[in-house]
């Protein structure tokens, strides 16, 4: 196999990780911010490409000066098309974009889009290129044989600790931390809106991670070894996390297990070419517990609001994985053996030195960057914009989910004639002049004597809407109004956990279907709805029935029974 071709294929897979990050972050946050999340991940790569090509790549890969601290840009990409190393540029660019995009989830739902764009430009322009050059561009750490094969420290630790700084400075989301009656701070769970999207993102990232870790493999044999360790570590981490959360809260935690898969991938990234199956398994096992404890510590003890666990997954496990190389390295190709494989403390010392220096650089520079942005442009949106959602406040996007828009904006839509724009088609039966229709109200009703008009209001789970709609059409119901609502019933005190935080009262997304009937018996509507909605579980829904005094059709002026036909 031509490893040069695989090198570029690996780079393409790393680019695909942008989509994975976007899905994870979107799924673990609320629907009203989905478009904003997508936009930030898109601009991480696009802004990063501009600034990295202009200066960042030269700083990272240029001839290092000042004791190997910084590279000298040569701008060969722009001056020597045929002589420039385009293969290296493309490869290093996608890794740079990955470091930048890690921060998006930790600052989600309350950060100004303009401020995020400024941050993204700065980290790709100078912050990431300088420290990455130390380890990968011929800088001082590479000369000490610091091992970070695919970026546990260079990429993930940098992105994770930047995420922590950004989340701390921008502050928690409204409602995340409140005071109880005793004045103590209470942690409130804010569940993400789609675990399905989060899971899709994890699978996308895991798939792309094979390129992330193995793209720089020297040959097919080494590539296979890397693919093996890259599979073992996250698998073990996820199994351990499942068991640990199951024992801890009585249920295996879905979102924590998704985080554990990523944590295992992050941790094995540094040593993927240097550790064996045992080392990868131990790295993964530690990650499975560490990710849970670090999320809980940051969320509940330190009280820093990180909606997706970016710091715990990338910052903590980037650090752990880099140090773990000094313990479990068994391949001397990239350095000396680790402590547990007879190599002594040398490699462990080099790994710790690299971690400390990269951390110091990241913490100092990114704190200053965020503080400068805060003082000049501001970091956080207004409270009313945060409550409304950043999709509409920052981008004018009413909803990322047009079929089921959120209650905060255009939450009501109808099925039937009212969904059609007034100028789209001619009214059935021909137009009725206003002078005929409008004065008609108050005339003697043409309704059949004794015909009762009833309104049936159904509160139900969203996933049963389509079956209910079809069933109601079959019994003759021709119109309905559907609203997305939030609410809870008598089960609000049910003990549940989200990412280790008890959920005491949770407003769940529901659908409200309103139907007014006269010809169709109310009993038929109720029986049909119960048959479709019944599962036997708490939360199946409720049906309310109201008497309706009158109905007036605006177009014709018809009333009562006739207005419904």
Structure, explained:
- With 565 residues, this protein is α+β, with helices and mostly antiparallel strands.
- The protein has two domains: 393 residues, Ammonium transporter AmtB like domains (Ammonium transporter fold, Orthogonal Bundle); 152 residues, Alpha-Beta Plaits.
- 54% of the residues lie in helices and 10% in strands.
- It has a five-stranded antiparallel sheet, covered by helices on one side.
- The protein is elongated, with a radius of gyration of 29 Å.
- About 5% of the residues have low confidence.
List its salient traits.
single chain, 565 residues, alpha+beta, Ammonium transporter fold, Alpha-Beta Plaits, five-stranded antiparallel sheet, 54% helix, 10% strand
Write the layout of secondary structure elements.
Elements lengths: L2 H25 L6 H28 L1 E3 L4 E3 L3 H4 L6 H16 L1 H4 L6 H24 L3 H4 L8 H19 L6 E3 L5 E3 L7 H20 L5 H30 L4 H16 L7 H25 L8 H19 L17 H31 L6 H6 L1 H6 L16 E4 L18 H4 L16 E7 L4 H10 L5 E8 L8 E3 L2 E3 L4 E10 L4 H12 L7 E7 L12 H4 L2
Antiparallel strand pairs: 1-2, 3-4, 5-7, 6-10, 6-11, 7-10, 8-9
Helix pairs in contact: 1-2, 1-4, 1-9, 2-4, 2-6, 4-6, 4-8, 6-14, 8-13, 8-14, 9-10, 9-11, 10-11, 10-12, 11-12, 11-13, 12-13, 13-14, 18-19
């Amino acid at each position: 196999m031509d490893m040069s071709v695989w090198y570029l294929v690996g780079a393409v897979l790393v680019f695909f990780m942008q989509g994975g990050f976007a899905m994870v972050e979107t799924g673990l946050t609320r629907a009203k911010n989905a478009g904003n999340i997508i936009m930030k991940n898109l601009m991480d790569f696009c802004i990063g490409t501009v600034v990295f090509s202009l200066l960042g790549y030269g700083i990272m890969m240029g001839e290092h000066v000042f004791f190997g601290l910084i590279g000298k840009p040569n701008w060969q990409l722009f001056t020597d098309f045929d002589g420039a190393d385009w293969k290296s540029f493309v490869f290093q660019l996608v890794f740079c974009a990955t470091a930048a995009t890690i921060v998006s989830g930790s600052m989600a739902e309350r950060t100004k889009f303009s401020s995020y764009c400024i941050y993204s430009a700065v980290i790709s322009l100078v912050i990431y290129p300088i420290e990455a050059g130390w380890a990968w561009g011929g800088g001082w750490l590479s000369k000490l044989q610091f091992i970070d094969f695919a970026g546990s420290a260079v990429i993930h630790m940098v992105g994770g600790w930047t995420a922590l700084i950004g989340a701390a400075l921008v502050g928690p989301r409204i409602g995340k931390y409140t005071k109880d009656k005793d004045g103590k701070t209470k942690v409130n769970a804010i569940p993400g809106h789609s675990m399905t999207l989060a899971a899709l993102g994890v699978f996308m990232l895991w798939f792309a991670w094979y390129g992330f870790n193995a793209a720089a493999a020297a040959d097919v044999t080494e590539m296979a070894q890397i693919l093996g360790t890259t599979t073992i570590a996250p698998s073990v981490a996820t199994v351990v996390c499942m068991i640990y959360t199951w024992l801890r809260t009585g249920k295996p935690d879905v979102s924590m297990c998704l985080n554990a898969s990523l944590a295992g991938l992050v941790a094995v990234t540094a040593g993927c070419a240097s550790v064996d199956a045992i080392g990868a398994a131990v790295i993964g096992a530690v990650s499975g517990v560490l990710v849970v404890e670090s999320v809980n510590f940051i969320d509940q003890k330190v009280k820093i609001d990180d909606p997706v666990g970016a710091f715990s997954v990338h910052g903590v496990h980037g650090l752990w994985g880099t140090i773990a190389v000094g313990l479990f390295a068994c391949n001397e190709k990239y350095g000396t053996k680790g402590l547990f494989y007879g190599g002594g403390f040398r490699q462990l010392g080099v790994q710790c030195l690299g971690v400390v220096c990269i951390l110091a650089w990241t913490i100092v520079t990114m704190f200053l960057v965020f503080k400068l942005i805060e003082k000049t442009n501001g970091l956080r949106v207004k409270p009313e914009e945060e409550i409304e959602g950043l999709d509409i406040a920052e981008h004018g996007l009413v909803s990322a989910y047009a079929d089921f828009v959120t209650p905060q904006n255009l939450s009501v839509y109808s099925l039937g004639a009212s969904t059609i724009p007034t100028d789209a088609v001619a009214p059935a039966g021909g137009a009725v002049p206003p002078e005929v229709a409008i004065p008609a109200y108050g005339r003697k009703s043409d309704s059949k004597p004794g015909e009762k008009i009833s309104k049936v209001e159904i509160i139900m789970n969203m996933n049963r809407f389509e079956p209910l709609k079809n069933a109601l059409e079959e019994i003759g119901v021709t119109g309905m109004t559907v609203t997305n609502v939030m609410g809870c019933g008598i089960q609000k005190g049910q003990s549940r956990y989200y990412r280790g935080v008890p959920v005491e009262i949770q407003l769940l997304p529901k659908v409200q279907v309103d139907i007014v009937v006269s010809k169709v018996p109310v009993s038929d509507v109720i029986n049909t709805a119960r048959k479709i909605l019944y599962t036997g579980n708490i939360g199946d829904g409720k049906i309310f029935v109201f008497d309706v005094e009158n109905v007036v059709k605006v177009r014709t002026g018809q009333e009562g029974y006739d207005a419904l036909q």
